[in-house]
């Protein structure tokens, strides 16, 4: 049998670059002579590797008139032995009785039969480079297309194509080609292919299921799909499912890697690095790095950036269906929360070192964690991990891990505001407020109320900000929490000033200054001087403003708080400018800019100070002091 290609599919869409790459390789091989044109196509289960290989083969049949052979090597098919050259020889018409007994003799016979032939060979479902090398002919007029779920890194002479899911437009076009009657429901089709995460196999199955039900609308199909993400795994048009495709990859993993796969599939967030994976699996960093790399080469993970990996959503859903009680999912979740809490605290201490004493001290991580060498690296870690940290806090809320939630709320507050993530900050503080009230932790409640006030004020929602500050003030006053009163009073003063209520603002700033002097808290004295300076500037008294900001700068310098120094320099610059002294103003602004550049601040904020929940690993009682974080640069 010289021609055994399966039929091409009408549903083939896109893959223009990949087809062009194959054609280019064929042309290049023909020009140089003596070179076998080999393409290795790899990708996750269901992404369309075989479909691409078969389609490309049909496009090139005229170039290879002597042989067009397709052979499934069944690398991931249960109950089948790996293919050897005997299978190809039988496919090429050799009588089984004439097959040599030894492997090297079969290889030689196979290559001899291909000598001088213009042949096209599709080797589908390959397990490894070692499996495929004996099957490669030596004729310079042969094109070999190989598909595998693994990256065949040792196949050095091949052109490697790593197939990804379809772009949105191609996914929609594929669905419509399979079911043209859906063309009048394009919005629903777009929603459906997005739910399928653009995986061709999932799109094909849902399209065939829709085609089999003449009475269905796209709304009916979406209702079935959206019942559960797991429904997409088991949905079938006849006997094919996405889950079955994933099963064929999963069952070939060794037991340790299967457990690792199941556990990282449970992690909240969008991606992972080796540290977070080690925490989840309770393993060493080296083992986590190795397991991630192996799963990446098996196309059960995608690499989003160097050493960062994510699961396709359907793969993640599949992994979660496999969870076993002996995996210890609850313990794995606690290890991950401990890791995120500890590492976020370390990163914040590195990025904002002058505020270290004002953040809660948390227990060390039980698994390896990175130590950022400098503020830039710390800010990079915080930015990269922020989506995962926020997902972790939501999961902590959902699973009643109040201590983690309350700590992360305080730890992350400053960075969320620095990056302008006010919606995330509001969500986080609202979750913390509910948890604090449920547990009766008044210190945590104060933190959450003032955090919400701060977040609302920075968004111009002054009525809500004032309400939260006043709630915090009443709570602090009732419990005799003087630092809490200072915090709430300063928030109210800033809010009044920003609404033009200057006398009320001045009264609150003066109360803060008097109380801070009484208890010897110089951070709050700084805040009062800054606020009074801004008021004097607004009231047209730049000389008085200059005096107040000089007091603030002296305190910030003595306290070693560079971003507060930047704020004071900004206030001094405005005062000098109002006094028609542009050179002095320019000098102070340059000082402020230099400081902010060193700190990596890229979101200006006119600020209220922010408390930390605790300086101990567990939430503290109201009798313990409530501290404040240093405020942020303007």
UniProtKB/TrEMBL annotation:
Compositional bias (Pro residues): 362-375
PROSITE patterns associated with the record: TPR (PS50005)
GO MF term (any one): ADP binding
Region (Disordered): 351-378, 601-634
InterPro entries in alphabetical order: P-loop_NTPase (IPR027417), TPR-like_helical_dom_sf (IPR011990), TPR_rpt (IPR019734)
TPR repeats: 446-479
Record-linked Pfam families: TPR_12 (PF13424)
Sorted UniProt keywords: TPR repeat
Domain of life: Bacteria
Biased composition (Low complexity): 609-624
Protein name: Tetratricopeptide repeat-containing protein
Native source species: Rugosimonospora africana
């Amino acid at each position: 049998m010289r021609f055994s290609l399966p039929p091409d599919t009408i549903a083939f869409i896109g893959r223009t670059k990949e087809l062009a790459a194959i054609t280019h390789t064929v042309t290049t091989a023909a020009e140089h002579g003596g070179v076998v044109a080999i393409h290795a196509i790899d990708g996750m289960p269901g992404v369309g590797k075989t479909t691409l290989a078969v389609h490309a083969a049909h496009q090139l049949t005229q170039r290879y008139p002597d042989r067009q052979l397709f052979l499934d090597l069944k690398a991931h098919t249960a109950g089948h032995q790996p293919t050897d050259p005997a299978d190809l020889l039988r496919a090429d018409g050799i009588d089984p009785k004439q097959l040599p007994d030894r492997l090297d003799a079969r290889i030689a016979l196979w290559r001899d039969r291909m000598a001088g032939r213009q042949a096209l060979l599709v080797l589908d479902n390959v397990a490894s480079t070692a499996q495929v090398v004996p099957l490669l002919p030596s004729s310079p007029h042969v094109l070999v297309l190989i598909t595998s779920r693994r990256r065949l890194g040792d196949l050095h002479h091949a052109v490697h194509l790593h197939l990804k899911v379809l772009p949105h437009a191609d996914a929609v076009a594929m669905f419509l080609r399979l079911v043209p009657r859906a063309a009048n429901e394009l919005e629903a089709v777009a929603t459906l292919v997005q739910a399928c995460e653009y995986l061709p196999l999932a799109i094909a199955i849902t399209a065939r299921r829709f085609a089999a039900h003449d009475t269905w609308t796209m709304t009916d199909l979406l209702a079935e799909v959206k019942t559960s993400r797991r429904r997409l795994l088991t949905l079938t048009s006849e006997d094919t499912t996405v889950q079955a495709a994933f099963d064929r990859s999963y069952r070939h993993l060794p037991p340790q890697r299967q457990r690792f796969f199941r556990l990282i599939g449970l992690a909240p967030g969008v991606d992972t690095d080796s540290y977070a994976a080690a925490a989840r699996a309770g393993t060493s960093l080296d083992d986590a790095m190795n397991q991630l790399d192996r799963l990446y080469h098996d196309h059960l993970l995608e690499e989003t950036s160097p050493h960062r990996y994510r699961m396709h959503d359907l793969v993640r859903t599949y992994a979660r269906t496999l969870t076993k009680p002996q995996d210890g999912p609850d313990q794995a979740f606690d290890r991950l929360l401990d890791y995120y809490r500890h590492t976020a605290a370390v990163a914040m201490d590195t990025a904002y070192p002058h505020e270290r004493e004002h953040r809660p001290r948390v227990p060390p991580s039980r698994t390896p964690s990175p130590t950022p060498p400098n503020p830039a690296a710390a800010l990079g870690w915080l930015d990269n991990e922020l989506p995962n940290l926020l997902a972790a806090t939501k999961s902590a809320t959902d699973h009643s891990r109040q201590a983690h939630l309350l700590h992360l709320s305080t730890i992350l507050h400053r960075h969320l505001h620095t990056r302008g993530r006010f919606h995330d900050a509001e969500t986080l503080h609202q979750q913390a407020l509910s948890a604090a009230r449920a547990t009766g932790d008044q210190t945590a409640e104060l933190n959450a109320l003032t955090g919400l006030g701060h977040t609302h004020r920075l968004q111009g929602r002054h009525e809500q900000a004032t309400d939260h500050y006043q709630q915090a003030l009443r709570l602090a006053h009732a419990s005799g929490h003087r630092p809490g009163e200072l915090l709430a009073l300063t928030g109210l003063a800033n809010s009044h000033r920003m609404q033009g209520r200057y006398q009320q603002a001045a009264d609150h700033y003066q109360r803060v200054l008097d109380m801070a002097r009484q208890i010897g808290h110089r951070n709050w004295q700084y805040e009062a001087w800054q606020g009074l300076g801004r008021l004097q500037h607004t009231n047209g008294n730049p000389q008085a403003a200059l005096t107040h900001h000089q007091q603030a700068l002296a305190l910030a310098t003595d306290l070693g708080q560079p971003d507060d120094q930047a704020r004071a320099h900004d206030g001094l610059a405005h005062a000098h400018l109002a006094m028609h002294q542009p050179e002095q103003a320019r000098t102070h602004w340059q000082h402020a800019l230099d400081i902010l550049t060193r700190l990596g601040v890229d979101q200006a904020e006119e600020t209220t100070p922010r408390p930390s929940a605790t300086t101990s690993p567990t939430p503290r009682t109201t009798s313990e002091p409530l501290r404040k974080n240093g405020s942020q640069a303007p």
